[in-house]
Amino acid sequence: MTARDILVTSSALSAAGRHLTEGGSVTHGESQIDALVGAVKALEREGIRAVLIGGLAVGVRSGVPRATIDVDLAAPSRTERSQVVKALVESGFTHQGSHEHSENFIHTTGEPVQVALDPEMDDSLDRAEPIAIAAETVFVVTTGDLIAMKERSGKDPGRRRSKALRDLADAALLREGPEDLDAGW
What we know:
The protein is of the alpha/beta class. It has one domain (3-142): Beta Polymerase, domain 2. It is 46% helix and 18% strand. A 7-stranded mixed sheet has the order 3-4-5-2-1-7-6. Helix 1 packs across helix 2 (28-45), helix 2 (28-45) packs across helix 4 (81-90) and helix 6 packs antiparallel against helix 7 (161-176). The chain is globular, with a radius of gyration of 16 Å. 35% of the residues are buried. The model is unreliable at 1-28 (pLDDT under 50).
C-alpha cells in the first residue's frame, strides 16, 4: 500500500460515516473515528490487537464512502472477553451487552462499537494490514478477507434480509472496484 493509498483510504474512512446535522456541520464521521481510535488504543493497552472490519473497512478498502451505524472491530477469538470489557469500560465506553460472537459498547460520543470474537475470523485477523487513520495505526482486514466476511454474512439464513443484501452489495463493490460505480449511467 502506498502513501497515496493511505491518504485516500483515510479520506474514505472520514467520509464513510459522515452525516449532516440540521445545522449542516459534519459530526458523525468524526465521532466514529474517535470511537475507532479510542477502542483500538484501549485494547492495545491490554495487549489485544483489534482489526477494523464491517462498513468502515468497506469504505477504507473500496475508497467509496460507506454509511454505517457502528464501528466494527474484531479481536482474536482466544481473547478473554472479560479483558475486552475491562479495557473498554476503563477507557470510558459503556458495555451494552454480550452476544455469541461479540461484545457491544457505546463510546462517549454515543457511537456504537462492536468487538467480534469469532474463531472463523482468526486467520483473516492475522493477515490484516496496518493503515494510518487519524494519525494512528489501525489494522484493517484485507480486501479479500473482507469480501469473504461480507459474503458469509450475506448468506447467513438467520440474518435480516436488508442487512444480508447490504453485505452482498458490499462484497460486490469490493470485488468490482470503485471505477465501476458509474458504469452504465
